[in-house]
Amino acid sequence: MNGISPGVNEKEWTDDVTMSRRIVLASRPAGAPRPSDFRVEEVPVPRPQEGELLLRTIYLSLDPYVRGRLGYAHTYRSASPLLPLDEVLPGGTVCEVVDSGSPEFTEGDIVLADLGWQSAGVRSAATVRRLDPDVSPVSTALGVLGMPGFTAYVGLNLVGRPNPGETVVVAAATGPVGSMVGQLALLSGCRAVGIAGGPDKVAWLRDNGFAAALDHRSPAFADELAAAVPDGVDIYFENVGGRVLDAVLPHLNAGARVPVCGLVSEYNGTRPAAGPDRLPGMMSLILSRAITVQGFTFGPYTASHQQQFLDETAPAVREGRLRYREDIVDGLEAAPTAFIGLLGGANFGKQLVQVGPDPTR
Ligand SMILES: NC(=O)c1ccc[n+]([C@@H]2O[C@H](COP(=O)([O-])OP(=O)(O)OC[C@H]3O[C@@H](n4cnc5c(N)ncnc54)[C@H](OP(=O)(O)O)[C@@H]3O)[C@@H](O)[C@H]2O)c1
User: Fold this and answer.
1) Mutate to test the pocket of ligand 1, among 264, 296, 306 (most ligand atoms within 8 A of CB)
2) What is the C-alpha to C-alpha distance for residues 145 and 157, in angstroms, rounded to an integer?
3) How far is the CA of 264 from the centre of ligand 1 (A)?
4) CA 183 – ligand 1 centroid, Å
5) Atom 40 in ligand 1: which residue has the minimum CA distance?
């Protein structure tokens, strides 16, 4: 029995979930991660005990914040501890219940869990949430209706506080956070300006109602941005930092709000790019134009606003009023390469890994 501890159920143990394939941190990346910073392992899975579930991973979410947990990166350092070497990479997952030690769940249930980069594992039933495939495709629980979508919702609505007619600028605008920010801004009666990398992404923004769509890789990007915001910028939803921030700053209006959600252009840096050179200019702008710059993470809003978010956005997603893209790669072993690509913009939409078959599709 592979040294697996006895579980609560006496039923036959299936071969495919007695072992889990998992990806662990092999070494700390300095700069951009490399495939050799990750290692694939196979380990036995314990049987679920009372109150626990044995889960099989269907979809794994790859997220930029994970870079901060790998080391030699300056962002998110205070919010999340460094991941120890040889530990499984963290990540949200959509899973199928394979064996249940909880009366609340039965085999075949689909749940949202935090299994990380592995094909199977055991979690307390209290830490998972049941998903209804009839409400929306289960993969959306990791993107448009999951943590990234919720982040966009609280960041725009509670931190940005949009008013009809205002101009909202967002970069990484085809990703799960940025695309939701732009579309929620449009639904609030704002003028949304999206920034993305490459012509296909820019075309997607134009097709989805953004008033202007810009490629941050264009040599004339700063001039193109100036032309796209003739009335200035009322909300700059900060996802990326770097060159985009530099280009947006001079256009911030009096009373502008800047929800600071992420700085992905700097995640592979070993020291802050937004150093002392930028700070005095920014501070003087913040003072003279009464600009509100507020960092936030989604976590503290979960208890108070997650249900409201789902009630409002799930029907809009179902009816096509909120659109989303997913970029799904096949097989757990593809995760490191897809994650490395995500940090540089190789993804087009929410980056997912299909780890196992999806019985709902
Ligand atoms: N505060 C929170 O609680 C919270 C929660 C979730 C996510 N976040 C943050 O939100 C941001 C977006 O996350 P996401 O999951 O939606 O990621 P995502 O958009 O799927 O992926 C990151 C994107 O960043 C863009 N990018 C990379 N390097 C860039 C650069 N040098 N300049 C401009 N853009 C660059 C790329 O898009 P292009 O090809 O279009 O450039 C890339 O696709 C990230 O900063 C993330 O850390 C924060």
Assistant:
1) 264
2) 16
3) 5
4) 16
5) 196
pLDDT tens digits, residue range 144-202?
Answer: 999 999 999 999 999 999 999 999 999 999 999 999 999 999 999 999 999 999 999 99
CATH number at residue 159: 3.40.50.720
pLDDT for 109: 98
38 lines ligand 1 (CB under 6 A): no
The identity of residue 78, as a single letter, is S
User: What residue type is 343 in one-letter code?
Assistant: L
Looking at residue 165, its pLDDT comes to 98
pTM exceeds 0.90: yes
CB atoms within 10 A of CB 297: 15
Confidence of residue 16 (pLDDT cuts 50, 70, 90): low
Ligand 1 atom closest to the CA of 350, numbered from 1: 20
Q: Is residue 311 part of a domain?
A: no
Look-up of token digits 């012509």: 199
107 part of a folded domain = yes
Which residue range forms the structural domain that includes residue 233?
147-299
Ligand 1 centroid to residue 172 C-alpha, Å: 5
Angle at 354 between CA 351 and CA 359, to 5 degrees: 130
Q: Please say whether the beta carbons of 52 and 102 come within 8 A.
A: yes
The closest residue, in CA terms, to atom 32 on ligand 1 is 265
